[in-house]
Amino acid sequence: MPSSGSDSRPPAAEPRGRDWTARSTFPVRGMTCAACQSFVQRTLESQPGVRSATVNLMTASATVVFDPVEATPESLVALVNDAGYEAELATPDASATGKQEIQEQAEAAEYRSLRLKAVVSLLAAFAAMAASMPLMGHASIDPLLHHLFMWMDAPVRLLAPWLYAVPPKALKWSLFALTLAVMAWAGRRFYVKAWAALRHASSDMNTLIALGTGAAFLYSTAATAAPALLESRGVQAEVYFEAVVFIIALVLAGNTMEARARRRTAAALNALAHLQPKTARVERDGQEQMIELAGLRRGDTVIAKPGERIAADGVVTSGESSVDESMLTGEPAPVDKAPGDRVAGGTLNTYGALRYRVVAIGTETMLEQIVRLLREAQGEKPPVQRLADRISAIFVPVVVAIAILTFAVWLMAGAPPARGLAAAVAVLIIACPCAMGLAVPAAMMVAAGRGAREGILLRGGESLETLSAVDTVVFDKTGTLTTGKPAVVASHGLTAEAWQALASVESMSEHPAAHAVAEYARVQGIEIRPVEGFRALAGMGVEGVVDGQSVLAGKPGLLESRGIALPEGSAPEGGASRIAVAIGGEAVGWVDIADTLRPEAATVVQSLKEMGLRVVLLTGDQQQAAEAMAREAGIGEVVTGVLPEGKLNYLRQLQAEGKRAAMVGDGVNDAPALAAADAGIAMCSGSDVAMAASGVTLMRADLRLAAAAISLSRATMKTMRRNLFWALAYNVVAIPVAAGVLYPAYGILLSPVLASLAMAFSSVSVVANSLRLAHWRAVKN
Questions:
Q1: Do 358 and 312 form a contact (C-beta atoms < 8 A)?
Q2: How far apart are CA 52 and CA 73, in angstroms?
Q3: CB 114 within 8 A of CB 214
Q4: Residue 662: closest CA among 702, 636, 695
Q5: What are the tens digits of pLDDT across the range 424-468?
Q6: How far is CA 104 from CA 96, 107, 259, 764, in A?
């Protein structure tokens, strides 16, 4: 049987000229284990025209890349439905948040259905056990139930003495009817899917349950309908209907707990989907009106009152407020907004009223893109999943073979057929491909959601796995390790009056250095005075008249060209740019402007070193400026003067040396290196190209998130490996015990009902272990 993982399945040879451009993602409900996932994936991959298919158990979805000439989304959905599962196409114009809400509603409905069937089945199981009490002449197929019978005999005689007056034949047929009803209603899903798998020459967990309960049911039916025939052949004509009902009830109870746990793993994604408001307050024709979000247009003016959510991405045109962006960026403190600032749809306006112009709607908004990326990340399989996929592909046939062998060995050992049947049923029921199917995607789903709450967007499972294995972190300088904004770092000789004159003329300029001076003046509370005769001297500086005095500010060469002697002072340090200042034709001092290190940079570098990582600064800047910045950040290894191609070559050189490198960058010139690195980490403050080339996006300009992303990836991989170990170890140990290997030496024989309990809790334990990642905390420095 071929492997289920699309990662491990080599692409089919592509006919010349074929264009594999069509891609469709749709929900698939009814999958309960890795074998189900594997079966659906193989079914889709067998369709002519399908290039690749990825089916995810946790997100209950399938993503298919296909040739639209040979296949259509409708035919793919029909194929899945024909296989016994439930699939449907999403509404063509549905947004990512809309799709998530639809999926959440479907999962909630499935959970309620499972819960109802589990509760009713458990009640029916206890009723079947009570009805079996008068038939105590038989030793139940299930040792556990036999002990329960012995314990409950007295209470049943006390509460329902009339049962013991009912003829045994009538009781048996009543148990037959009750069991058949439970199998047809609550257990129907197992038999329908098992039959669909059989028609496609495949098998899954439903096959095991159907075989186990079906064998016990048929044996009991034969004992009810033709007891004399069995006894004439030396076989006890005992019925085991109660065991069948108990197994179905407990498996459904396990599925219910699993469904509930799986819904919790999607909590972050569901929370993001619910951020999108349903309506918007727009201003049209001079009047306010509430409209459905679908009616919003680019260019509309929207009003956000205190406590309302921003309807779409926009630019503030009037009003001031603070906006809570924590669900999008992980930043806990509200962010001040004023005219000219951008706001993102789904964020919460706090105390003031804002008017903003809509610049992005629908799938273009930041919220939509985050939800889409998060869904894709949770659906992508990391390479570590390949082992589970390969095992899942052969798991069920192997278990069925072991069950048949178990029955045969017990018979050859001289045991009654009922004993051999009990052991075979226990083997079929205890085997759990569910745990293997959930081991990796459950952890991936929780990690992606936890990362999103911190402001870390993981592009997929492969990105997470490679990030966890890096041993070197390479930082770009400008805009990554530094703020990317020039600031005043030193000054000399300037009095309060001189600062006021300098700030006034620089406030008229658009040059980044002038902005740095103006910002410094604003922070220091320096009053800006009117400026007359302002002139920007291209590439040199500015001049103007403030309070009747001429002011000249710019490169030292500008003052020299005007015959003004430069003020004395040391040369700029760390690659800073110097602005010399003259007032009234006389030099009065200077200001040094430089890009500044991010406040958290030094502590982040130290944290990375403590994690055992090598840290490198890679920049196109001159050596003096780069080394000064590296010293301040605590980085000992610096590579300077490299162009984008040089950054790419450096990454390749590291990889050739056997290193696994993560690249942290923000600009267009970082994109090739981000794409070539084993793990690319892009700052959200950077370019769209950089973010598209990276596997991890930091949703706010905070370097602590880079260290947190590595820490989260390591914690997630550790959880995945623990899950896989538990899933494999459980099956390796449980199946032989169920078969009875401990019986000759210790007299231990596992009950089929106990086996169904163990199977249910094995998958729940894997999801519960993954949910521990929801409490992961980034190290705060």
A1: yes
A2: 13
A3: no
A4: 695
A5: 888 888 886 677 777 887 888 888 888 888 888 887 777 888 899
A6: 12, 5, 12, 20
Lowest mean pLDDT among 69-78, 184-193, 271-280, 511-520: 271-280
Question: Which tokens in the block code for residue 508?
Answer: 């008229």
**For residue 591, what is the DSSP state?**
E
Q: How far apart are the first and last CA of the chain?
A: 51
**The pTM is what?**
0.71
Residue 676 three-state SS: helix
Q: Which residues pair with 553 in a beta bridge?
A: 542, 581
Lowest mean pLDDT among 108-122, 174-188, 485-499, 741-755: 741-755
Which of 242, 183, 192 is CA-nearest to residue 32? 192
- Model confidence pLDDT, tens digit, residues 539-579: 788 999 999 999 999 988 899 899 988 877 667 776 678 89
pLDDT average, residue stretch 381-390: 69
Taking only the tens place, the pLDDT of each residue in 128-175 is: 888 877 776 444 555 555 666 666 667 777 777 888 788 889 999 999
DSSP readout, 235-284? ------HHHHHHHHHHHHHHHHHHHHHHHHHTHHHHHHHTTS-SEEEEEE
Residues whose CB falls within 8 Å of the CB of residue 287, separated by 6 or more in sequence, listed in order: none
Spatial distance between the Cα atoms of 714 and 610, rounded to a whole number of angstroms: 14
- Residue closest to 120 by CA, chosen among 209, 262, 263, 253: 253
More confident residue, 446 or 263: 446
Name every residue whose Cβ is closer than 8 Å to that of residue 225 and which is 6 or more positions away in sequence: none
| Contact indicator for 423, 735 with CB cutoff of 8 Å | no
The two structure tokens encoding residue 284: 């049209």
Check: CB of residue 208 under 8 Å from CB of residue 431. Answer: yes
438 CB-contact burial (10 Å; exposed 0-12 / middle 13-18 / buried 19+): buried
* pLDDT classification of 513: cutoffs 50, 70, 90: confident
Name the residues annotated as catalytic.
476
- Residues 488-509: what's their mean pLDDT? 91
709 neighbors 663 (Cβ within 8 angstroms): no
Mean pLDDT of 204-233: 83
Measured at the CA of 510, the angle between CA 505 and CA 516, to 5 degrees, comes to 70
* Mean pLDDT on 469-477: 92
How many angstroms separate the CA atoms of 768 and 781, rounded? 30
Enumerate residues 6+ apart whose C-beta is below 8 A from 5.
41, 381, 385, 386, 389, 390
Q: Which amino acid is at 397?
A: P
DSSP 8-state class, residue 413: T
The Cβ of residue 610 has, within 10 Å, a number of other Cβ atoms equal to 10
Is the pLDDT at 777 greater than 70? The verdict is yes
Structure tokens at 400: 């069925």
Instruction: Please tell me the predicted confidence (pLDDT) of residue 612.
Output: 95
How far apart are the C-alpha atoms of 190 and 192, rounded to whole Å?
6
Residues with Cβ within 8 Å of 35's Cβ and at least 6 positions away in sequence, in order, are 203, 204, 205, 207, 392, 393, 395, 396, 433, 437
Count CB atoms within 10 A of the CB of residue 661: 26
Order the strands of the 456-458 sheet from edge to edge. Answer: 456-458, 696-698, 679-683, 661-665, 472-475, 614-618, 637-639
